Amino acid sequence: MASHGFVLRHGLDDLRHAVARLLLPEPLAAGTLQSEAVAGGASPRPGASSGGAGGGPAPYGDAELAASSEESEAERARLIALVELARGGDTEAFGLLYDHYQGSVYRFLFYRTRSSALAEDLTSETFFRALRSMTGFRWQGKDFGAWLMTIARNLATDHFKAGRTRLETATEDMGQHDDATEGPEAAVLAGLTNEILLKALTELPIEQRDCLVMRFLQGMSIAETAAVLGRSDGAIKQLQLRGVRNLAKLMPEGIRG
Fold first, then answer.
1. CA dihedral in degrees (15, 97, 100, 12; nearest 10)?
2. Count of beta carbons in the 10 Å neighbourhood of residue 208
3. What per-residue string of b and e applies to 133-169 under the rule 16 or more CB within 10 Å gives b?
4. Residue by residue, what is the 3-state secondary structure of 104-137?
5. Is-contact 206 157, C-beta < 8 A?
6. Residue 25's pLDDT band (boundaries 50, 70, 90)?
7. Spatial distance between the Cα atoms of 39 and 14, rounded to a whole number of angstroms
8. Residue 133, pLDDT above cutoff 80
9. Per DSSP, what are the bridge partners of residue 67?
10. Of 30, 118, 155, 244, which has the fewest CB atoms closer than 10 Å, so is most exposed?
11. Helix (H/G/I), strand (E/B), else coil: 95
12. What's the Cα-to-Cα distance from 97 to each of 39, 90, 101, 124, 183, rounded to whole Å?
């Protein structure tokens, strides 16, 4: 499975290129918007598929709907089996699920809140609620990780609605990445630092922000993002397109080519 650093680095690069193409003068940007925005985000992980737990029929009668987007068949079977054990009350199995998914849940919440402390608190609450609700989990053809992301997203939304904090815009130093692109786009890319992109992300409407974070920074597929946001695949493509467009509008003056 690709490391988070690899997904983040390439995800940020993909997002920068998608935004840069919108900042190029016409006709250089013509014809690139739709294809870039819809195709953007980290590539779907190979081997993503659904399958049974491989350990016999589940007592809930939904084993045929079990799904996982892991790369290897062995890892998919392992995680599905762990979920089956966990929703049967096996706390050790749930602990192994925590070990596997904690990092991705924390990263999503950090990108959403821009606060390490708050992301840690909400991550803990996400898994507490998941543990408490395991007996009520049903596969419904979606990845267990997507269910966790839904819980995390709802917690973050409720937190900000309650007005307990304000969205922080400070960004961590995530490093700069060299680009081999030459020509007008290179000049635009040079001004699109990670700090500018991540700060602008916080100013997008919540659903657009979540979509871009999941697609570009988390490396989630369109189908996985659709499962978390409760939208169709087509709606996610349009949401991503609008998000990239609005992100380009938030870029500081002087960056346009």
1. 10
2. 19
3. ebeebebeebbbbbbbbbbbbebbeebeeeeeeeeee
4. HHHHHHHHHHCCHHHHHHHHHHHHHHHHHCHHHC
5. yes
6. low
7. 10
8. yes
9. 50
10. 30
11. helix
12. 30, 11, 6, 13, 47
How many residues are present in the chain?
257
Residue 148 pLDDT greater than 90, yes or no? yes
The maximal CA–CA distance of the chain, rounded, in angstroms, is 61
216 close to 17: Cβ distance less than 8 angstroms: no
State how far the Cα of 156 lies from the Cα of 171, in Å rounded to an integer.
Answer: 18
Is the pTM higher than 0.70?
no
What contacts 61, CB < 8 A, 6 or more positions away?
none
How far apart (Å, rounded) are the C-alpha atoms in residues 228 and 219?
14
Q: When comparing pLDDT for 8 and 140, which is higher?
A: 140
* Cβ neighbour number for residue 171 with a 10 Å cutoff: 16
pLDDT at 181: 39
Tokens of 137: 């989990």
For residue 75, how many C-alpha atoms fall within 13 Å in the half-sphere facing its CB? Answer: 14
pLDDT for the residue 39: 46
Determine the Cα–Cα distance for residues 2 and 217; give it in Å rounded to an integer. 13
Residue 50's beta-bridge partner residues? 67
Q: What is the pLDDT of residues 32-72, one digit of tens each?
A: 444 444 445 544 444 444 344 344 444 667 777 777 777 78
Q: What is the pLDDT of residues 81-130, one digit of tens each?
A: 999 999 888 989 999 999 999 998 998 898 888 788 888 989 999 999 99
Q: Which string of b and e fits 217-235 if b means at least 16 CB within 10 Å?
A: bbbbbbbbbbbbbebeeee
